[in-house]
Specification:
The structure is a single chain. This protein has 393 residues and is an alpha/beta fold. It is 45% helix and 10% strand. α1 packs antiparallel against α3 and α12 packs across α16.
């Protein structure tokens, strides 16, 4: 077999694109160097930065970017005035994307992109026909890359279409928000895709190529809310999520480091005992526990992988940590995540379910109803009770 040709595929998603910067930094550290990078909308902008290997510049750009650096927006308006402005603008054809052109001029050099070893491609959509236009850089006329990048980013109807040679184009995400097939057609033999769940259509992956998909458990924020603090958070999460996809960390939502003292298995066994005891008091809690996991995107059902140091074993602890707003931007050992969770509240969540958790005698009907209505609250309480009964701290 020959040397693999690696394709990195970057989806569109507006302000959520900061996540892709963290993902690319992790890929570099892992030694996964792409030979081809394709992107749609904000993905094509990040792709150009990555082709030039401008990681520090990409981080600087995203941490300092605001809405006025992307769109032509009026300053000093009240929220009500701004809402009316946006409605009027959409009715009249969309916002002007010209400020983004200034960003492209400041950070990107077309000649350098064309001379780079890593090949580049983007996607846009022909407005009148809704035909997806997939373009390797070699098919874009020299000196006009910025026009095509802005066309790929014209998220109609919020943003105005871009006219190129008399034809109107809109955001590539309308027809292909994750251009896997473009990377395949350019010669990629394996793919990594970074999905930021933008507004658009992700085509089914019919390339037949080995594909890893990086996406976040966490809400990366609104598409047009360009905020430096959120961008820094998303970069950190993108980095950790990529390490997870490549098996360097565990967990589902949090990046879990190795567990040398076997804390997670001990927690899982203790949690199982606490849950079984609670189910003996109210059988409906078995469904509530499973529902809590499914609603929040954690592995279910409960019993499948519980006693091994797997995503299933850590799921209740991670769910509880998420419920109590434990930050996901740093990696944790399972023990440290448990300690951070216990330090995240003043009032013990277990106090809401004292009868179900065996902390006092009484009628469990009311608490069982609360658990059914708010299953995540019940799991959080159960985790708190489990950890405090373990006396590990």
């Amino acid at each position: 077999m020959g040397t693999p040709c690696r394709g990195l595929v970057l989806a569109g998603g507006g302000a959520k694109g900061s996540y892709q910067v963290g993902a690319y930094r992790a890929l570099k550290e892992l030694g996964w160097q792409p030979d081809i990078i394709t992107g749609t909308s904000v993905g094509c902008l990040n792709a150009a930065l990555f082709v030039l290997d401008k990681i520090p510049e990409a981080e600087e750009l995203w941490k300092n970017l605001d809405i006025h650096g992307v769109l032509e927006m009026p300053a000093g308006k009240t929220p009500e005035e701004l809402q009316n402005f946006l409605l009027d603008t959409v009715r009249s054809g969309g916002l002007d994307l010209e400020p983004l052109g200034d960003v492209i001029d400041r950070y990107l050099d077309e000649d350098a992109i064309r001379a780079a070893k890593v090949r580049y491609g983007l996607v846009m959509t022909e407005m009148n026909t809704l035909k997806s236009i997939q373009l390797p850089l070699e098919q874009i006329p020299h000196g006009r890359l910025k026009e095509y990048m802005m066309a790929s980013s014209a998220c109609f109807p919020a943003l105005r279409p871009r006219t190129i040679d008399g034809v109107k184009y809109i955001d590539g995400g309308w027809r292909d928000n994750m251009p896997l097939s473009l990377a395949a057609s350019m010669g990629a033999t394996e793919l990594v895709a970074v999905d930021i769940e933008g507004v658009g259509y992700n085509k089914p992956n019919r390339t037949g190529l080995p594909t890893r998909v990086i996406r976040s458990h966490w809400d990366l924020g609104p598409m047009f809310d360009f905020d430096g603090v959120r961008a820094a958070r998303n970069i950190a999460i993108g980095y950790l999520d990529t390490l997870r996809v490549f098996g360097r960390v565990g967990g589902t939502a949090y990046a879990l480091l190795p567990d040398p003292d076997g804390f997670l298995a001990k927690f899982a066994a203790a949690y199982q005992q606490q849950l079984s005891a609670a189910i003996s008091r109210a059988p409906t809690l078995a469904l509530a526990e499973t529902m809590a996991r499914q609603r929040k995107g954690y592995p279910a059902p409960f019993s499948r992988n519980l006693l091994a140091p797997t995503r299933g074993a850590s799921a209740p602890l991670e769910l509880a940590a998420e419920k109590m707003n434990v930050p996901p931007e740093e990696p944790y050992t399972p023990r440290l995540l448990a300690l951070t969770f216990l330090g995240s509240f003043d009032r013990d969540p277990a106090d809401r379910f004292r009868v179900l958790l065996g902390m006092e005698e009484g009628n469990s009907i009311g608490e069982a109803a609360m658990a059914a209505a708010a299953p995540e609250d019940f799991v959080t309480a159960l985790v708190s009770r489990t950890l405090q009964e373990m006396h590990f701290f």
